[in-house]
Amino acid sequence: MADTLIKVDLTQSAFDNDMVHNRWHPDIPMVAWVNPGDDFIIETYDWTGGFIKNDDSADDVRDIDLSIVHFLSGPIGVKGAEPGDLLVVDLLDIGAKAESQWGFNGFFSKNNGGGFLTDHFPEAQKSIWDFKGMFTNSRHVPGVNFAGLIHPGLIGCLPDKSLLDTWNTREVDFIATNPTRVPPLANAPFAPTAHMGRLKGDLRDSAAATGARTVPPREHGGNCDIKDLSRGSKIYFPVYVDGAGLSMGDLHFSQGDGEITFCGAIEMAGWLHLKVDVIKDGIAKYGIKSPIFKPSPITPNYRDYLIFEGISVDEYGKQHYLDVNVAYRQACLNAIEYLTKFGYSKAQAYSILGTAPVQGHISGVVDIPNACATLWIPTEIFEFDINPGSAGPTRFLDGSVTMPLSPDL
Ligand code: ZN
Fold first, then answer.
1. For 382-409, what is each residue's pLDDT tens digit?
2. Taking each helix axis from N to C terminus, what angle separates 324-340 and 346-355, rounded to the nearest 10 degrees?
3. Cα 179 to averaged position of ligand 1 atoms, centre (Å)
4. What's the 104 CA to ligand 1 centre distance in angstroms?
5. What is the pLDDT of residues 337-371, one digit of tens each?
6. Which of 19, 32, 202, 408 is the most exposed place for a label (fewest CB within 10 A)?
7. How many A from CA of 263 to the centre of ligand 1?
8. Which domain holds residue 286?
9. Residue that terminates a domain, selected from 237, 269, 294
10. CB-based contacts of 257: which residues, under 8 Å, 6+ apart?
């Protein structure tokens, strides 16, 4: 059995674990060193460090201080890895912590984070998903059961100083274009809730003031939320600092393409079994700017889908030019409206799109003025027939089961 290099105790605050950090900065010290070819196990908190509870209230989703996220395990140093190399990471296996066989999905309040459909779902809501081996279902969203496509939402290597400066400059400049926007355009560095791992003293304080927030995906990978980065995948990461500094967290039991609910997929605490290797000078050899990866040999074997189209005319009738964001939003809204005909609330339907192995495709981006995006819902995850027919939809649910909602105070 491979060694567990980082352990997390879910009864302990993530801020008290010095093998965890919640900002990106090149000065964060490595917590362990491995050799190319080694395999090892890393445990992680859920992305909120245990703030969201397995209960029937969404108050925690409403009240969370989002400046604390994401709690990442690492950084792991790989001997011999140098700037310009590629770090090869095999995701040999991923699982939920044995003592925590559940996960959560939520919608943030528009005033605290928001989400892809925040104008339609402006208040905090939550659903809890229980794991039964490789399958999951929810007491808050009846009628669906599906296999997990477990993956890290967030994984990548430490930036060097120059890359960190690039991130901070472009994001702070971007915020300045509309500083009062709700939700904000981006998240600037924020020292008060920074957890800088083993960095101590003055160095720690200056790094906390400039450490990049972990929210967006960036050139190094980071918070990409790619559902297909699952067990069995192989990822090639650009290396920027000596030792690479690989960190990860934000494990998802399952997620639909787009992670449209933002809080997010089915979020969980868990572990990863990894193997690392190095391709010397791989960035130049292959012309790499952002990570590339190979998919898992195992994927959910759903064969039948009901596919919803969306075009870049928004829900208020306004024309947009080849805008795939608007088009995907229409595909999602069209699917939600359809699922309500079987008895789901709009919130339950939205939750299914965020959690189940739903596929999102950019279908057309050239036919002016409309982009076309499609949302693929696997029909086999439902305990009833969702296909259209001449008899009309059979109302499977009577509305007696609801999702917890916490109004803004
Ligand atoms: Zn996540």
1. 999 999 999 999 989 999 999 999 999 8
2. 120
3. 26
4. 10
5. 999 999 999 999 999 999 999 999 999 999 999 99
6. 202
7. 6
8. 4-294
9. 294
10. 227, 358, 359, 360, 375
